[in-house]
Amino acid sequence: GGLEQFFTNSAGELAHDALRGLQTINAFATESILRRAMSLFPYSKVPADRDRRIEVISSLSPDDRRFLHDLDREFYEKNGDVADALVEYVEAHLVEFPSFQTPIDTS
To answer: Which among 14, 15, 31, 68 counts the fewest CB atoms within 10 Å?
Structure first.
């Protein structure tokens, strides 16, 4: 797993959408991690084309690869950020989620 795999798999084409989603649900720690990882791409723009993403990731310097792996570690240390933020977002917007008309039990 990790960010390298995210960017080189088909999901990587959704990096900018993922960033907007993290902003929307206020998952700020994970948003910061993804934004910093995206900074490794030219102009912080992750290409939709998978081959181009692979080319960029493959050409990273050893320091940039370490940076990406450090971001992986940071992500795994803060892994509750997204889940907690998503639950809070859904509970605050229940009208938009008809399937969840009662608060979510996360215990």
So the answer is: 14
